[in-house]
């Protein structure tokens, strides 16, 4: 008889969800976590980064109050107060993810490292745990690039950035993806010099060109320096100018340009946490992108094992490093692993992603480039600028765009949003794409006025304008107007 019905490795978003549901259904569940409960999202990612972005946003709003005829003194940044806000946000949420809470649910929480010793056995904290089913939810960590000189300079990742007791004098950020640009804007608005170095031709290389350009303009307006299309050749340590100063770092670019800073943040990507799991002993196949699974997240090589969250690499789909994907994965595992429901599989057609800069960039479904690459040639692209939105004008924030990617028959494939709080608007488009609702459902919605959401309704309406103004419609109206 196995010791546990389910053993979960990793107490991040995905692991916590699986453990809670399993225990709630009356199963005997063990949850193993070697670090902090709540994983990266709570402790080093989503929560602290959004808390810091909120502080930067408050400072920016104070500086921009003049657009309303309100004169304020330039804000003074209390770094200790900012840190207290960030840590306070973590502390307030932490009880929801705590070991005590999960033990109260009936989950056996083991605070230790875990590794496989057999296809049906895991060792954790000196104990050998046999299981019917296991779920690997060990997450991901920042990629440490193989750069000459990196081992000779101090550097930060998202796991150490929020521990700085003093603000960076000049923060160099390697990587212009979502983490890089979010932290660039937050620190720039909090009074730091910031330079983002991106080897690709532009920042946010995966995002739609038009929308990414809006984020780029916002970063430049906040004083961020962008070095795009600039691979780093090597790193060097910068000696301090005085005995009281700390050593810095110099990034030497491929063209020979030298950029000196006080701190270096590595934000070039994420890698699955595979080390130490001894997956070979467990008969669990994995690759550079994570644990290889089928579409239902079951291991391709060990039928007792599933993988969820950042560490899962579903066949033909690949990993997605988002907390909301971890939640989606938990639901899939419950259906496929516990209830044995056939046909359960990952589907990212309506997956949202958000870069939480100001303005935010939200993308649901396919970008225009992704849709064309997928073979959708007969597309209709409909845009509505926020410069035509009454709420945006009233709030003095008319920069932004709603961009819809639609088939010729009116099916929404993707929606890109560049707007303040765009992430709050994304759910509507996810529902439409996920449920395959016709574009007419959006065009015919009655939305409260004035709201930014009206931009999507107006963009959808553009799809039907040619039909409404067609010669056939005009002839029909000419006949109808003769009726009594």
UniProtKB/TrEMBL annotation:
Residues 352-459 form the Pyridine nucleotide-disulphide oxidoreductase dimerisation domain. Gene3D superfamilies: 3.30.390.30, FAD/NAD(P)-binding domain (3.50.50.60). FAD binds at residues 50, 310. Binds 1 FAD per subunit. GO terms for molecular function: flavin adenine dinucleotide binding; NAD(P)H dehydrogenase (quinone) activity; oxidoreductase activity, acting on a sulfur group of donors, NAD(P) as acceptor. Its cofactor is FAD. Belongs to the class-I pyridine nucleotide-disulfide oxidoreductase family. This is Dihydrolipoamide dehydrogenase. It comes from Dankookia rubra.
